[in-house]
Amino acid sequence: MITAAFEYYRPASLDEALRLLGGRDDAKILAGGHSLIPMMKLRLAEPAALIDIAAIPDLGRIDFDGKRFRIGALVTHATLAANRDLEKNAPALWDAANHIGDPQVRNRGTIGGSASHGDPSADYPSVLLALGATLSLAGKSGSRDVGADAFFRGMFDTALAPGEILTTVSFDAAPASAYAKYQHPASGYAMVGVAANLRLNGGTVGEARIAVTGVGDSAFRAGNVEKALAGARAGDADAIKKACSNAASGVDARSDSQASGTYRAAMADVYAARAVSAAAARG
Amino acid sequence: METVNIEVNGRSYSNEVEPRLLLVHYLRDTLGLTGTHVGCDTSSCGACTVLLDGISVKSCTVFAAQAGGHAVTTIEGIGNSGALHPMQEAFWAKHGLQCGFCTPGMIVSCIDLLRRNPDPSDAEIRAGIEGNLCRCTGYENIVRAVRAAAAAMKADEPRRSVAELLPVGAS
């Protein structure tokens, strides 16, 4: 399959990329291209110009100062999946990175590209919500920080304004975190994916952030589960299971050829309990 | 048109291409390197897998322009009939193929797998070839081949020639 024709630019700096992007709504940013290129081949996307940011220095860095991670938009899933700091200090993201697509897809796909794409079945949005991540968006008049709660707005809809480029994702260490996924056997996408990030006080859950992907039009926080988990004993599987009932409450669960909304909502409970138990075991 | 300068299998090429030309079509149609196959054309099957700066990628999901300034290795650059790569030898010896359509991409993926993990378990081999579909073998002999290649590469065995591997009298 051949894409529609487009102009191709490969700027060497962020400023140049912003200049190229500014003022035109028919251009798209190209990072790893593993969402965009398939869509272009199917002619679901026909941008008149692609601005390939692969040559921009520093967007491929991971910084960890012992407390907070700063991850550049161009960091690939494979790089995250092989990162020991992440495995130990933010394992929910490490889990997700290890189970996206397949090895070749992980070698090309990037965290910034996935987040910007806003796919309702992507893995990272739920993890970034559970981690309380901040997304830094560069624009012509400077950079602004947006919380994950405000960034993921709907199906393929994010807080990125025209002319803006996602540059960095940052979040505090979250050692008691995990991501559990019911993976579609063919596509590798999350039928349902749940990220859990716990703050444990001794043997009990102090605070919980739980987020679900694959079920609604966008990833969402399971507020009622978060509330119900507070005070639960971390090793009490029955209490965790009970707290995770109705994880998709209040959400219009999607029905499509792969699964009914009822099934997706039921699986959200199952995978929420699995993610919480895995996170508690790490704490 | 876009000028791309790409190193393929150790040789430098410079070509004028349309930006929308996919790397797999550049390799097959512009350079005539037809060992890289087009299977599903939807980033699923892995038949088009090549190494980009030593890392496995699906060349149906990379524009040739993106590979500009980088080095590509295709199955033609892995080995040849006089000096097979240990992975190619292992696929042959363990019957890791039937129709052969997936084989170039499969071998390239398996080489990248052993680069990341030189001594994989069977489960790690199966996970490592998740991005490559084979409709003939049921994967059993592919897993055996990768295991054999890992052992051979670990032992750093001198490469044997094809003539030595052929059955007696078959030449």
Number of helices of chain B: 7
Which CATH architecture of the largest domain in chain A?
2-Layer Sandwich
Q: Strands across the major sheet of chain A, in which order?
A: 4-5-10-6-7
| Major beta-sheet overview of chain B | 5 strands, mixed
SSE string of chain B, helices as H and strands as E:
EEHEEEHHHHHH
Integer count of domains of chain B: 2
Question: What is the rounded distance between the termini of chain A?
Answer: 48 Å
Protein chains sharing the most extensive interface: A-B, 28 and 29 residues
Task: Output the radius of gyration of chain A.
Answer: 19 Å
Characterize the largest beta sheet of chain A: strand count, sense, and whether it forms a barrel.
Answer: 5 strands, antiparallel
Coarse morphology of chain A: globular
What's the gyration radius of chain B in Å?
Answer: 16 Å
Number of strands of chain B: 5
Question: What is the overall number of helices of chain A?
Answer: 12
The oligomeric state is heterodimer
Domain module tally of chain A:
3
- The CATH topology of the largest domain in chain B is Ubiquitin-like (UB roll)
State the name of the first-level CATH class of the largest domain in chain A: Alpha Beta
The CATH topology label of the largest domain in chain A is Uridine Diphospho-n-acetylenolpyruvylglucosamine Reductase, domain 3
